[in-house]
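Write out the 3D structure for:
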Amino acid sequence: MITVAGLSDCAQADVKDWLESGSDPGYQIMDDNDIVQESQDIIESDNEDEELEEMATGPTHEQAFTALNTAIDWYEKQKDSN
């Protein structure tokens, strides 16, 4: 018998009873439709994650440069109108 700190003593017979009494095979039983749906859900989740990553990275250098030029043009027009 292996002793693990923090756990009460467990006899080999207890472990055997526990393993034999479980009716859960340890995995989900799925039919073809369930498998297809699960696959589609995973793909959709991956696509959403990629979209979030793209949004989190910010604008491209070209987009930032264009936005800065637009802001500078606007600022210069404000000075001219005063």
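Helices lie at 12-21, 32-57, 61-81.
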